[in-house]
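Fold this sequence, please.
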Amino acid sequence: MNSFLNEAQKMQESLVQDRRWLHAHPEVGGSLPNTVAYVKKRLEEIGAPGQEICDSGLVVLLGGKKPGPCILLRADMDALPMKEESGLPFASTCDRAAHTCGHDMHTAMMLGVVRLLRAHEDELCGTVKIMFQPGEEPLIGAERMVQAGILENPKVDAAITLHVNAVAPFPTGTLSVAEAGVALASCDNYRITVHGKGCHGAWPYQGVDPIAVGAHILVALQQLNARELSTSEAAVLTQGMFHSGDAPNIIPDTAVIQGTLRTLDESVRQRCLKRFQEIAAGVGAALQADVEVEITGGCAPLVNDPEVRADALRYFRELVGEDGVAEKEGGPIMSSEDFANVMAHAPGIQVSLAVNSVAEGARYPMHNPKVMMREEPLYIGTAAMAYLAKRWLEEHANP
C-alpha cells in the first residue's frame, strides 16, 4: 500500500470524528464563527495554526523550506439553508441548516491533509497553501478570499479542490476528474426588485402593479435564449422565487424576483448579464416602475487545466491503482462551483470522490434533505489531496 494511503487510513477515526462534529453543527453563508473556531482549534492541535485573512476565511501554509512552486488546496465549509431528514444519529442540530452538499466531509478531509503534510513538511519541494473557505453556496466566498490575497505571498501556481459525489456512476471511493476544458457552468445569483405604487385592487389605475411588471420582465428575459443566443451558446435562466404582497385585494408597492443565470462561456455570461440589466430596466421604465437588478454572488465557468488534470490522474493511479481511478467522459454540466473564481487566476482542477454510488443503492443527490454519504472514503480523499500536492511540487520544482 502507498505510504500516504496507509498513513491516512490510520487517521480514519479522527476524520470521522471531525466530519460528525461539523455535520451536527452546520452554519450557512459567509460567516461561520463556530465552524471556524473548531477548525482553528484542530489546526492548533496539529501544529499548523491558520490565519483568518477575511471573515471565516482561513489560510495555512506548509512547506517553504525548499525552493519551489506553490500549490493551493481548497475546502469549503458552509452548509445549506435547509432541514436535514437523513435520520443519522449525528444529524444537524439546527432546523435551518444542513450539510447536504458534503462540505463537512471536505473540511474534515482537509484537516487530515494538513496533518498528513505536516508530517512530511520537510519533504515538500515548495509550498502548499491550504484554503478553508466560507460562502461557497451563495457564490461569494472564493472571490472574497481572492480579494483578500489568497493567491499571493507566495503566488499560487496551481489550484485544486475536491468535491464528494453522493450519486456517483463509479464505486464508492473512486477518484475522478472531469475532462479538460469547461467542466461546470458559470452561475450568477440575481435579485430583481420592482418598485411600483400600491393601491386598492378595486382601483388599479391609481397605482403601478409591481407583480404585473415583474411578470412582463420574466417573459421578456426569455428573449435571451429564444432570440439573442445562437444554438451553440448555452445559457440557463431560472427564476426560483417571486414574492410580493400579503393581501388578495391590495396591489403591493414592491415585488422581488430571485434566480440564477448559468452559461458555459465567460463572454456569453458577460453579454447576458449586460442584456439582463437592460431588459429588466427597460420593461420597468415602459410600465412606469423603477427596477433594481442586483447580482448577489457569482462565479465564472470552471475550467479544468489539461496538464494539471493529467498529472493528478497519474498521481492518483500511483496512490490507489487503476481500479480506484475513473476518467470521466462527456461534456460540461450546468451546475456550478465558486472555486472557478480561484481557477480563473491559476490553472487547476476539481477532483471528485465517490462517497456513494448508484450501483450500490444511492438514491438521493446533493442538496436533498435525505442525502447519505458514506464515511469509508474519507481517508482516500485525504491521501489523494496530500499526495497530489507533494508529487506536483516534486515534479514542478525550480531546477
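Residues 187-299 form a domain with the Alpha-Beta Plaits fold (CATH 3.30.70.360). The mean pLDDT is 96.
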